[in-house]
Structure formats: structure tokens, C-alpha cells
Specification:
InterPro entries: HNH, HNH_nuc. The protein is α+β, with helices and mostly antiparallel strands. It has helices at about 10-20, 55-65, 70-80, and strands spanning about 30-35, 50-55. The chain has a single domain (about 10-75), classed as DNA Binding (I), subunit A. Helices cover about 35% and strands about 10% of the residues.
Length: about 90
């Protein structure tokens, strides 16, 4: 049996990402959700560079592979480092 890697959980950061107030992909302000670019099941954690605020539609597209992970990473990299959660 392969041991599970412990996940880093940061609810404060997730709340801050959601508080951006718009979908970082399409700019919608409706039904915002936080998306893990690298899924938690694949070892992704709650870190600023792995989280993006998406509307429900873009979130579904991201999970369906219709929005590339590289596109989401570019958006996160351009976002800047305005989320200080220490």
C-alpha cells in the first residue's frame, strides 16, 4: 500500500483567493469558486501558485480540460503577490 502524502490546507488563503471577486479567466462575478490547478489528488496543495478564482462555468471547463493548466498558471503568475497570509 502506498502511503498518502499529507495535504497542506490553508483555508485563510482559499478565502483570500475567492475574495478576488471575479473569475480570473473570464472576469465573471457570478458563482465564484477556488480551483486547484494541480489537483489535490495529484499532490497539489493549497498554495497561492496553485489556486485560482474561477466562476462555476470556467471551473467546470478547467476540470474537463477545455482550459489548459498552462493558461491558468500564466494568469496566476501575472496576478502578483498581493496575498499575504502570514
Amino acid at each position: 500500500m502506498i502511503p498518502k502524502t499529507p495535504r497542506i490546507k490553508n483555508p485563510k488563503l482559499i478565502k483570500q483567493i475567492r475574495s478576488i471577486g471575479y473569475c480570473e479567466y473570464c472576469s465573471s462575478r457570478f458563482a465564484l469558486q477556488v480551483h486547484h490547478i494541480k489537483t489535490r489528488g495529484a499532490g497539489g496543495n493549497d498554495t497561492e501558485d496553485n489556486l485560482i478564482c474561477l466562476c462555476y462555468l470556467c471551473h467546470g471547463w478547467a476540470h474537463d480540460g477545455l482550459i489548459r493548466k498552462e493558461e491558468l498558471r500564466e494568469i496566476v503568475n501575472k496576478r502578483g503577490r498581493d496575498y499575504n497570509v502570514d
